[in-house]
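ARCHIVE CARD
Drawer: 12
Card no.: 0347
Subject: one protein chain, sequence and derived structure
Cross-reference: see card 0346
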Amino acid sequence: MRRAMTLGAAVLMMAQAAPAEVVKSERFQGDVQRRAIKPLADGTPMSHIYVSVTTVAGAVPGRAMLPQAGAFAAQAGCRAGTPLSTVVAGVDAQAAEFEVLCRGDR
């Protein structure tokens, strides 16, 4: 419970969002928006990342593709950092939306 409260507090302390960038792979493309959140006690940077994922053809990933789309979102969002969690925030008519919490690279 304490850890969940700490994460919630960290997310509330977000700085301004960085401009979105587009990242592509062989199967997916994503609009990535990063927000720096409070660093860990040792100074390690943390980021809360939003990734809107479609296939390279522009289609919404189907249910069977969500695990691969989530892995893409984590890699695209964290870059050289370590993804700590990836959550499907929703799927609509335009994209699959993911939230990723990253430790390290910003």
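Annotation on reverse: The beta strands are 21-24, 28-37, 46-55, 82-91, 96-103. The CA atoms of residues 38 and 76 lie 21 Å apart.
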